[in-house]
Amino acid sequence: MKLDKQGSSRQIGRLAERMAAYIPQTLVNRLLHGEELEPGQARRFKAATLFCDISGFSHMANELAADGPRGAEELNRVLLMTFTAMINAIHNAGGVVSHFHGDAMMIYIPDDGQAAVHALACAQFMQNLLQQGYNQALITRSNNQPAVFNLSMRVGVGYGECLEVVVGDLAKGLECVVAGSAIDDAVEAEKRAQAGQVMASQRVLAKANIPTREPFGLVTEVLPVPYSQQSLHWDAYAAEQLWRVAEIAAAFVPRALHDRIMTDNSYFVAEHRPVTSLFVRFEGINYGRADAHDLLQQYYVWACQLVARYGGENSRVNRILTGDKGSMLHIIFGAPVAPEAPGQALRCALALQREKPSFITSQQIGVTTGQAFACAVGSQTRREYTVVGEIINLSSRLTDLCAPNQVLTDGETAHKAQEQIVFTSHGAAKVKGFAQPVALFEATAVRHSIDQLRLRFDTTQRPLTWRKTEQEQLHDLVQKGLGGHGVAVAIYGLTSAEPTRFVGPAIYEWLDKGGHVFLGLGQHHLREIPFSPWLPIWRDFFGLQPEQTVWQQQQHIERKLRELGMDAPDWRPWGRLLGLEVVGEEVVSAVETRIQQAAALMQYGFTRLAARHPILIVLENIHWADQESLSLLRLVVEGWRNHPIVILLTFAAGSQLALDQLPPATVTIPLAELPVPEGVALVQGLVRGLEIPPVLLRHLGLHNPAGLVNPLFLEESIHMMLEKGWCN
Prior knowledge:
The chain is an alpha+beta fold. The protein contains 25 helices and 24 strands. It has 3 domains: 9-429, Alpha-Beta Plaits; 453-671, Rossmann fold, CATH 3.40.50.300; 674-724, no CATH class. β2 (96-101) and β3 form a beta hairpin.
């Protein structure tokens, strides 16, 4: 990650100070003294350690999600206030925050002869600080009503050997890992503590000359709080030194977050957003071994490459965490940018199991999807970007229930990904920290594309009985396409849900006639990416999978082109469109040229396939399509007029997409609201002859005969009432 080097020495100093907060202070000091941070380089030392787990923030994050931006602002305020006080105390005691484990912290104090005493005193001071000033968070909710959230903390203190190693790649991202017996010691002590307590291991107590016969002891002695902070005076360093700190530290920050935190008012990025969280508990690296740092480097780089293959900018390896529940890899889909993508995440999880390095003996993976609080947790002097919430805790807890090399998820995540992933139900289990049993589903395989289509457009669900005329119109157009007359059909309604259900029968009919169906989807977060709705169609056309290497995908493309009659197939033009790395090829920058080339490739490939099997292309939500995709659409429709190729376009009425942006001669099928008399007839059919009271008609908006009503709203409302017995 590169920064623009500009501004005065003072500005560079402010930049360095801001970016340095994203790495442990030990690394900052090493950089300022000219040391190189080579990936895979190990440093071993003795240290006292603290593991502090603050309870209450996850519950607060879930509750305040309902308050929108106001809730995020309030939660960020409490996090900032609480962690600033704690981190100041840590730094004053000479401590270093290694990592934030969500709303917990791992801290170490390199041993100078007094580290054990300093750690115990710091732990007591932090516990008193929380109990006396931060144990209750007063929040003003979005309705201006006050609410109180309780916070508590458990602290474990340990001592032993630490292994510190920077892993990754400077160009793609770095991560600092601290592991070893000292980390394990603190975590074991924290597990034995109750809320409000400080528990210490025998080793750290012995170092502090506090006798105990037990492996762990409760700390009750009042120890003087030391002041051991070695302050960083940023003005004392040359601009080149400061610039190096800023540039290296930037590699520890998510690429998509970098620009946001560089503006003057964006020290902390905080928002509730949907994410998919993966925790991977891995075994096979003994941190006492001499080659542990090499294995960590190999494992981290491998994991980053695989995650990027499945998620791109939509995903990231968040952290390697050690000690807390063993060695854990935390992966996020959907933060800081893009949607949560549970299907992508579960495909990634299955690949992690399938392709794990030989030295990794076991992986247990928990996956959950839902709303979480994404933020730069910490203070102005030490912070990390992470996610907090109950779904994050659940994904971590699921690893406790996993068999070796198993992928487990909950019911909500399985439901969202069922079109793409095959699951096996394992009933429900009690999970620590959750009042109700959690339904468990094991992800076992990726569905074939045709199975995904049949599930997405399942015609066994409730038919659109109020669209008989429109369905007959679409059926006639499908028959025309099967007969060799290409046509484009645009279906639009108030929401995207009704067009998706509406096209289902046409897709099933096409598949039953032996035709090929390709699906593309416009998405809000991809609306600036050229040809984004076409990419899944092209990949499906060639049978490409994320599991394949670039070379394997190249072979698939050339094999398909040979099948279609090309004597000397060249995969490179298609490779450029698909975003594959084409060595030695110049990128075509002219937009019109790119569109013309893409249209020519599609004209050749799709018409030859259509000569064998009729083709149906479904482009959903094209109101989110980029302009290059719409231009390409107009060209290919014109070239396919005399071929058995039908294109179904769906979009939301009232969106920015205008009908005149569609290809000429596109047939439009509007799914308009129903006149009230037709709405009444729909409700009468849904209640199966039951009498409809006037109050219900008024509630459903059916009291004005001249009005219009949304049929999906009527259907959903009546089925909910029937399920609850309100219409009996």
